[in-house]
Amino acid sequence: MRRPGRPHVARPAVRPARPDPARCSPGWPEGALSTKPPLCRPCAALAVRHCPHLADPVAIRVREPRAWGVFGGLVAPAPDGRPTSASGDGHLLHGHRAAPWFLASQLVLELTRCA
Fold first, then answer.
1. For residue 11, how many other CB atoms are within 10 A of its CB?
2. Lower CB count within 10 Å: N or C terminus of the chain?
3. Which helix (H) or strand (E) holds 74?
């Protein structure tokens, strides 16, 4: 039981939809990537009530979410010098050589030590 005044340490990552079992890798969710931030159980319940995109969420207890990289898109200079989108959105690992040309919009976490 949680003591008053102490933070709740279980941090489930809430994903917006249930994954298709046919597309999941063995051992899922271990090693899965998520752009959804870790949050405590009371906050997860609140998010589900208020966010229409969380119609059928999956809560995963993650003991060590690790910063893996970022989600966003590559940009390149246009002929007039202004930045322009060079690709669709995708994931980029921290330290990748394309990082100077990548406009990040979300942090990507790797889910490790899942229960």
1. 19
2. N
3. strand 66-77
Calculate the dihedral angle through the C-alpha atoms of 88, 59, 14, 64, rounding to the nearest 10 degrees. -90
Token reading at 58: 């999956």
Q: Residue 86 gets which letter from DSSP?
A: -
**Pairing label, strands 102-110, 66-77:** antiparallel
Whole-prediction pTM: 0.66
* Amino acid present at 43: C
Closest CA to 65 of 39, 88, 97: 39
Cα separations (Å) of 6 from 1, 2, 37, 97? Answer: 11, 7, 20, 41
Cα–Cα dist 95/101, whole Å: 12
